[in-house]
Amino acid sequence: MKAAHPPDPELPPEDALPWEKLSVALRGLLGDESKALVTAAEVQQADAALGAAYDGLDYYARQLQATVNVLIAKGLLDAGDLQARMAKLAISLAGDRDHAHPKARFSNAGPNDIGGLPGGPIDRTTHEEAPWEKLIVALRQVFGRGDDALVNLHEQRRAVEELGDDYNRLAYFERMTQGSANVLYEKGVLTREEVRSRMDQIRARNAGVKETR
Q1: Tell me, what CATH number does 183's domain have?
Q2: H/E element, 127
Q3: Residue 31 lies in a domain
Q4: Is 181 helix (H, G, I), strand (E, B) or coil?
Q5: Cβ atoms within 10 Å, residue 197
Q6: pLDDT tens digits for 129-157?
Q7: What residues contact 182, with CB distance under 8 A and at least 6 apart?
Q8: pTM of the entire structure?
């Protein structure tokens, strides 16, 4: 039995997920009256033709699948290319070492706002921290020491939460390092050019060590 569908909305609700808002926007562009690539009637017909395997999809997912099917049928989208892109994306998401949750239910929520979302299994394995991981913890303590702290705890937390997509791409200590660096850039204590130059020197030195082994 197919899920009941609401009337096709002009605008998605405020609490719609980003991809749901994007699907509505794309359908609006594709169905522009002056040069419509996909009409509302075609999407409705494609939705009705979806098999039982799609019965569990919600309204936005069904509409998106129906739109894709119309584009494939018209030769405007290659099914093989789409599958390849989706497989590549799946590999990228699977490589997320922190098993990131969806960003949130609201478009203005930060990547750290995941309260109430399913967390999945907890990884209880432990490992010895690498020297650089111990170093960043020590440096952050030094930065935040005393009344004249160079970088306080709230600035560090804010910088990590503003990493955007990197919040999910980076592991815990990597987020901590990048966030601290961003605050130091903001305060003029470091420049990106200085850090880039120093990193190039370290890479060259490490490459030399490997060659001599």
Answers
A1: 1.10.472.20
A2: none
A3: yes
A4: helix
A5: 11
A6: 899 999 999 998 888 887 778 888 889 88
A7: 159, 162, 163
A8: 0.46
